[in-house]
Amino acid sequence: MMRFSTLSSKNILLGVTGSIAAYKAAELVRELSRQGAAVTVVMTESAGKFVGLTTFNALSGRTVYTNLFNNPAEPAPHINLPRQADAVVIAPATANFIGKMAHGIADDLLSTIVLAAQKPILVCPAMNSAMYEHPAMKGNLEQLRKYGYQVVEPETGPLACGDEGPGRLAEPSTICEAVKTVLEKKDLQGRKILVTAGPTEEPIDPVRFISNRSSGKMGYSLARVARRRGAEVVLISGPTCLSKPWGIEFVPVRTAAEMHKAVMSYFDWATIVIKAAAVADYGPSTVIPQKLKKGTPDLSLKLTRTPDILKELGKRKKRQILVGFAAESKNLAVEARRKLQEKNLDLIVANDITVPGAGFGFDTNQVKIITAAGGVIDSPLLDKEEIAYLILDKVLEVMQKRGGRS
Ligand code: PMT
Predict the structure, then answer these.
(1) CB-side neighbour CA atoms (13 Å) of 112
(2) pLDDT, tens digit (0-9, with 9 covering 90-100), for 124-141
(3) Bridge-partner residues for 151, per DSSP?
(4) How far away, in angstroms, is 336 Cα from ligand 1 center?
């Protein structure tokens, strides 16, 4: 559990409408609550045909509302509930309910709440692909965007009805991320941030490669937090098991050479570059086209240096803030400062990989953030998202010292 979360002490009003995906709203209540939010559920009458009120009551620990006249002691819930909320989330939102919202119809508690709410509204559609792709639906969603509502697009895949296509309710983790993005301060608005993450794989033959233990968690955390704080983010990632973060341009690569090419193609676009990737320093000089057979007792592989992407960026940089990482097992500060100077960086984040819970693979990290001007921040062991907040705070500080927006 993180010590800090955007959702801590936030009140989320979750509207559930009548879709088979209503069962996923139960998971969403758990996820929002796990991250510190208090969730109040409002169900439409047809939502009750898919999931029972008791389920939401047990998961949220709060009263579940189903109609305007639930409780005579609590008049006008359509005014009071959104007033108490920090955000209103409609998940799943059916075609019918989206149509009602688009046209200002208020004929039950939830649709009346939507009309009365003066808080951020997120709409998470879920329906059959043909319905989702109908021009009426496209027009209705467009109308909701014009009202300033955030539409969390459905996913494409197998649907409950047996069809395949767009229409699956976004995953609870995606909806949570969208809620956090809506609620987060936007101090990185207007910044264009390029993040690299994960390992690279340098192929030996069709089935073998040289790589390292980077999971991508540090880089993905940075990308998510930067997006949440309002930046436009491109994430260039080596192979990882993580899901593509929501709302981010994602560029998958495999080798150091591919990462080099991708980074160079975005470099002029970016105002901030953060290189959290663990790029292989060496790769096999030639790739063996067929699977290597075992034969001789010994085998030598000739390795060649890969391009040092960050060093090249350091030579080419004009207005960008360049942030490097260093994973070290000894002389942490000395090695990090050497890399900072050698690669002409503005900031380096050094992780001591001998500290339990820090560096490769863990959900947590403990870092030294060193600036070119000589400033040092020593973090405790924190969740990688919290480390991402610290790094981005420092980046902003460096930019402000340098003279505001670039
Ligand atoms: O992915 P996780 O499991 O969450 O782990 C995170 C991490 C430990 C991988 C990350 O926090 C980290 O420290 N990444 C840098 C790893 C490293 O040791 O890099 P390096 O010392 O080889 O390189 C220094 C810097 O130059 C890095 O920013 C690297 O991206 C960059 N570099 C290195 C080699 C190369 N050929 N090109 C580069 O751009």
Answers:
(1) 17
(2) 999 999 999 999 999 999
(3) 123
(4) 11
